[in-house]
Amino acid sequence: MNRFTLHELHCFVAVIDEGGFQAAAAVLNRSHAAVFAALAKLERQFGIALLDRNGYRVRPTEAGLSLYRRAQSLLGDAEALSLHAQQMAMGEETELNVVIGDLCPRSKILGLLSRFFAKFPNTRLQLHYEAVTGPWERLLNGEADLILHRIDKSDLQLEWIDIGTVSLVPVVAPGFLPFPITNAITPEQMRELTQCVLRDTAQHTEPRNYYVVGGASQCSVADHEMKKDFILQGMAWGHLPRFMIEEELRDGRLLSIAGRHFPGATEELVAARRRDRPHGPVAKQLWEALEAQAPVIERELAG
Q: Which of 129, 209, 261, 301 has its CA 20 to 30 A from that of 88?
């Protein structure tokens, strides 16, 4: 039996993803005949039918679906190997994509990144801001080399550096509540008031709500800075990172309503990257710089 080629696997995966030969050919920039021939050759080599061609859309057979999953994994490994070879051949990366999440202490991280990339003028920093599940989506889709955000530490695709903990405090402006502040404020009381929440920047991930009172009126904003302004102006209430509001809590411009039903939250801030992706020399040095600075950032977040 002749060995199959990556080209044939690309054609097979594209036909299933696109639902037909013509669409796959357009995506791959190949002729319809070339894609059809690649699939026919695979089926001859394996001695099994990979596609059900009876319907309007081409569908995988049971055997084809099993092979499709393995082919996706193999093509992913081949892409990673190619990227790794390219990075070794070119030396320093031409660019790195870094995502700062909504929990990140921006000024501290931006200062660190500024100092770091000043040493690598040939590597361009592509910096992005994402909120809620947006950082995870970018990282898992291969659109980010590194994120600074919270993650699911049970995800074996990821490795991380602990940066510190971020306390989120439910706060209001003086005079916002029509009742006294106690440690027993209930969700039913807060449901009658507007809550300010962050807008999830993920495009294809199912949205998640954090610390949201169901049924309450909401205003959504892009980041915590705007959220803070809304709350300071008495337009809404919401949770804010403590490191952003220490001064306002001290001088009384913001009041904590933390209590039995609104205890606040603590999130773990990390630098995270994919384990299964190759990392070039500049990315590795950035990782080491974050490891070195992590204790300093953690102390500052702890106050």
A: 129
